[in-house]
């Protein structure tokens, strides 16, 4: 919602917007929305800085915003209907437009300054990565306050009250500064979510890679024990099209591989002194052949790919190592047979 309110400052003034939104009302609606949303932003930041603050502080912000909205509506209603464009760049010396933009930018000066202060203060109260996010958002608001809204207040007030422009050219150079501030604000607001998205994408690719690494071992075990598989086996090419629930499928395959090894363990011969992962892969293959030929178990149970330490990650790494060794051993045996 804040994104729509802030970006409206640029979109409404874009070329061709008058054809999409005829008349003068879009500018009033845009400024009212901005006022209300900045009031909401300040209230939210206040609650983050002082969770035990009195509720009346929030109501004060809402009251200020509502009074500003009423003033904007009244001022806008006084503008001559013969006035064409109502963008800030077209205000010129029109009293009604100057008063409208003086009021609007006066509130925005207060709101951005207050918001920047609260966002920076809130960043001091957190030790997480949100600190950088809040400080960048604070910097964006400060840029808008100092580089756009305050100069526009001075310019419009001077033209309205004195008939001269104390800061010439604000209709030109303040807009790029406004865009810079908006970008900085949204980069700050979006940083935690963007960083989380990057982490999720990385984990997704890692899960997909390891999911495919486990396939040869999983296929051999699930062919012997179909009951371990939650999902029916599919062709490798079709498996490449699996995109949804990848991490669930990945961890499910890990569990199924471990279940398959447990079920196969009575058919696995004793490891002896050679406990290398290649030797374990060889024994797993021999056990599968033994069971396929209908021969009986050779031991009560044999532990294969046992992790050196407890924990899910250690177990996963052992299974991945066994899967890689299984693939290499199977390729070697297949080449020897040829």
TrEMBL record:
<dbReference type="InterPro" id="IPR050039">
    <property type="entry name" value="MAB_1171c-like"/>
</dbReference>
<keyword id="KW-0812">Transmembrane</keyword>
<feature type="transmembrane region" description="Helical">
    <location>
        <begin position="173"/>
        <end position="193"/>
    </location>
</feature>
<dbReference type="InterPro" id="IPR046675">
    <property type="entry name" value="DUF6545"/>
</dbReference>
<feature type="transmembrane region" description="Helical">
    <location>
        <begin position="28"/>
        <end position="46"/>
    </location>
</feature>
<feature type="transmembrane region" description="Helical">
    <location>
        <begin position="58"/>
        <end position="79"/>
    </location>
</feature>
<keyword id="KW-1133">Transmembrane helix</keyword>
<feature type="domain" description="DUF6545">
    <location>
        <begin position="204"/>
        <end position="327"/>
    </location>
</feature>
<keyword id="KW-0472">Membrane</keyword>
<protein>
    <recommendedName>
        <fullName>DUF6545 domain-containing protein</fullName>
    </recommendedName>
</protein>
<dbReference type="Pfam" id="PF20182">
    <property type="entry name" value="DUF6545"/>
</dbReference>
<feature type="transmembrane region" description="Helical">
    <location>
        <begin position="99"/>
        <end position="120"/>
    </location>
</feature>
<feature type="transmembrane region" description="Helical">
    <location>
        <begin position="132"/>
        <end position="153"/>
    </location>
</feature>
């Amino acid at each position: 919602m804040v994104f729509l309110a802030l970006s409206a400052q640029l979109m409404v003034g874009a070329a061709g917007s008058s054809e999409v939104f005829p008349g003068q009302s879009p500018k009033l609606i845009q400024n009212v929305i901005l006022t209300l949303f900045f009031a909401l932003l300040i209230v939210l930041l206040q609650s983050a800085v002082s969770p035990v603050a009195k509720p009346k502080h929030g109501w004060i912000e809402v009251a200020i915003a509502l009074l500003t909205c009423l003033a904007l509506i009244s001022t806008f209603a006084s503008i001559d209907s013969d006035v064409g464009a109502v963008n800030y760049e077209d205000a010129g010396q029109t009293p009604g437009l100057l008063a409208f933009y003086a009021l609007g930018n006066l509130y925005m000066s207060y709101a951005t300054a207050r918001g920047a202060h609260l966002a920076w203060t809130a960043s001091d109260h957190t030790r997480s990565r949100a600190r950088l996010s809040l400080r960048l958002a604070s910097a964006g608001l400060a840029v808008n306050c100092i580089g756009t809204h305050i100069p526009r207040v001075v310019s419009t007030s001077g033209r309205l009250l004195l008939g001269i422009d104390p800061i010439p050219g604000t209709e030109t150079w303040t807009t790029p500064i406004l865009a810079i501030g908006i970008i900085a604000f949204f980069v700050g607001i979006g940083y935690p979510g963007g960083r989380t998205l990057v982490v999720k994408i990385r984990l997704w690719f890692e899960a997909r890679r390891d999911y495919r690494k486990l396939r040869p071992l999983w296929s051999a075990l699930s062919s012997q024990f179909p009951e371990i598989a939650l999902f029916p086996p599919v062709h490798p090419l079709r498996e490449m099209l699996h995109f949804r629930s990848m991490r669930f499928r990945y961890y499910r395959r890990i569990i199924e591989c471990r279940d398959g090894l447990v079920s196969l363990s009575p058919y696995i011969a004793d490891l002896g002194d050679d406990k290398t992962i290649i030797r374990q892969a060889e024994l797993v293959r021999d056990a599968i052949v033994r069971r396929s030929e209908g021969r009986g178990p050779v031991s009560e149970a044999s532990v294969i790919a046992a992790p050196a330490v407890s924990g899910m990650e250690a177990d996963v790494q052992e299974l991945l190592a066994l899967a890689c060794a299984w693939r290499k051993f199977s390729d070697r045996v297949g080449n020897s047979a040829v």
